[in-house]
Design goal:
Elements lengths: L1 H18 L5 E5 L12 H7 L1 H14 L5 E5 L8 H7 L1 E5 L10 H8 L4 E3 L8 H4 L2 H15 L5 E2 L12 H14 L4
Parallel strand pairs: 1-2, 2-3, 3-4, 4-5
Helix pairs in contact: 1-3, 3-4, 5-7, 7-8
């Protein structure tokens, strides 16, 4: 872990120097969970990974020539680790895998919405978007916007990449519902 963190810090030092003040988000990624659970216990994460993430993210924010936000990608049932991610300096969680255990958008927003931005979670890409009806897609998008958008801290995106099995009418239902209900005031 020391070596990996050292290599990442050297990478980010060079990358941040190259972009100067022209960066707002810095992206790091490690899938920490499966659909049903974490890949390791919160205690193991806290002792083996948390200190290195904290060190890396602090380094990035210090080294950047302008304020940057840490965009962290982890699929799965990551809810138990969100407080630790926030403590590490993560500003943006991507995605919000709504079909994973305990990833209820209303609960996530209530518990963590003041401290982290949710990027994704706008529509389930495992079931609803590829196999649901356009009506079901609209209802899902409306619900997720209603759960995650109030008060800010939400960037609409599908949970994950939109695959080729998504009917065009479902994609358009997602897009049109976003246009109707996703306008920030």
């Amino acid at each position: 872990m020391d070596k990996i963190t050292e290599l990442k810090m050297r990478y980010w030092a060079k990358a941040l120097e190259a972009v100067g003040g022209n960066v707002l988000l810095v992206s790091e990624a490690d899938d920490l969970a499966s659909q049903q659970s974490l890949l390791c216990s919160p205690d193991l994460y806290r002792s083996m990974i948390h200190p290195y993430h904290k060190k890396l993210f602090s380094f990035i924010k210090t080294k950047a020539q302008s304020p940057v936000h840490i965009f962290y990608h982890s699929c799965g049932a990551v809810k138990p680790l969100i407080p630790l991610l926030i403590e590490e300096g993560v500003d943006v969680l991507n995605p919000v895998q709504v079909s994973a255990r305990d990833m209820d958008t209303q609960t996530l927003k209530r518990e963590f919405g003041r401290d982290i931005t949710f990027w994704g979670g706008g529509v389930d890409t495992q079931q609803v978007l590829p196999t649901g009806s356009p009506h079901e897609v609209r209802e899902e998008v409306r619900r997720r916007i209603g759960d995650l958008a109030p008060g800010g801290g939400f960037v609409f995106a599908a949970v994950h990449n939109v695959q080729s099995d998504v009917p065009p009418e479902n994609f358009m239902a997602m897009w049109e519902t976003l246009q109707e209900f996703g306008v920030s005031t």
